[in-house]
Amino acid sequence: MATPPTADALVAALRAEGLTVIEYKSWRTHNRGDRGDGWGPLNGVMLHHTVSHGATAQQEADSVSLCYYGYEGLPGPLCQAVIAKSGRVYMVGHGRCNHAGGGDPNVLQAVIDERYGDRPPVPRYGNATPGHKDGNANFIGAECINMGDGKDTWPAAQIDAMVRFSAAICRMNRWSSKSTIAHAEWSKDKSDPAGPGYPGHTAMRAKIAERLAHSPSWSPSAPTPPTTGTDMPDDLVLGFHTANTLAENTPEAVYWEDEFVDSANSHGAGGKTVLTGRRYTGTVQLQIAGLGQGEFVEVYVAEENSSGTVTGTGVPVTVYGEHEGAHTLRPSIPFTGKVGERLVIYVVSRSASTVTLESGRLQFLTWVN
């Protein structure tokens, strides 16, 4: 049982867990607080699927809008957060939201006590069942974009974001993974989330429990740095402070002019090369100005040869604008891997607006392996 978090505390917890969080419109004051029993005390996290498309940027935007505004017969917000197939988390409400509806009071008690086995009791109540419990007051809800038709696939990035979202809420309230349930486990009328790629409710709780056993910054795909002997990891902390205006659709290498720590002497001459022939895990934080809502830049690692020719690139991380109009972002982006020759960080603007890369900081652990 917990007091609902402030909007700032909620966003901070989600970002600390490694999530890309987008604050959508007036989400901080958008709720259904004028109805029902209010919001709180909070007892858990509830996962849903939207029954909407999300494979393209436009479909993603439409699904987020649906959850923010709602529809005839069910006004928004329909949840506190929307988790996209891309792994982005959109905050659309803070306070009571129309997501859980009527469910089984026995399930709620099992969640509060965290006393069940693999899954809570099979729900015997729904919206129309006399004696049902209104779950909107007691759960933080995440609508996850999926058609729910048994054909729409759940991508790995989305499942990972669902796990991180749930773990962040559980962590801040000192709950175990048993405080996260699916909508299908709350109401006998519901079946979500489900579909190809979704591991199942019990397996999701196992993934959440695994995250909770580590620090918020843990990534299961990251290589484990050595901890003994002569192969101790080295620190690399770099920065830059000279602003650079990005040309649309033109990749720009980041030149790191501030060298705070470089224990392996791996920061290349000229400022662009970060590493040569080493493993790495860490984050890049960038201050970006000029992105409006729905506009974005892509950030990725690239391997170059000694002549400066790009020989391979990593998967781009998309950083979206969070509000209407021009503003500044400070996203913290995780990267991990191994480079053979030279590692360089690239940024490319996909916006026609004037976007400026104002400053940045890179913080890696690196080692030879």
Structure in words:
With 369 residues, this protein is α+β, with helices and mostly antiparallel strands. It has two domains: 7-212, Peptidoglycan recognition protein-like (Lysozyme-like); 234-367, Jelly Rolls (Sandwich). Helices cover 17% and strands 30% of the residues. Strands 11, 12, 14, 16, 20, 21 and 23 form a seven-stranded antiparallel sheet that branches. The protein has a six-stranded mixed sheet with strand order 1-6-5-9-2-10, sandwiched between helices. Strands 13, 15, 17, 18, 19 and 22 form a six-stranded antiparallel sheet that branches. The radius of gyration is 22 Å and the shape is globular. The mean pLDDT is 90.
Please outline the helices and strands:
Layout: H1 7-16, E1 21-23, E2 44-49, H2 57-69, E3 70-71, E4 74-75, E5 81-83, E6 89-91, E7 102-103, H3 105-113, E8 133-134, E9 139-144, H4 156-173, E10 180-182, H5 201-212, E11 234-240, E12 244-246, E13 252-253, E14 258-262, E15 275-276, E16 279-289, E17 296-304, E18 310-313, E19 317-320, E20 328-329, E21 332-338, E22 342-349, E23 355-367
Helix pairs in contact: 1-4, 4-5
> What is the H/E order?
HEEHEEEEEHEEHEHEEEEEEEEEEEEE
The CATH superfamily name of the largest domain is: Peptidoglycan recognition protein-like
Major β-sheet profile? 7 strands, antiparallel
Name of the CATH first level of the largest domain: Alpha Beta
Question: Over the alpha carbons, how many angstroms does the gyration radius reach?
Answer: 22 Å
Strand content: 25-35%
Give the second-level CATH assignment, the architecture of the largest domain: 3-Layer(aba) Sandwich
The backbone outline, from C-alpha atoms, is globular
Low-confidence stretches: none
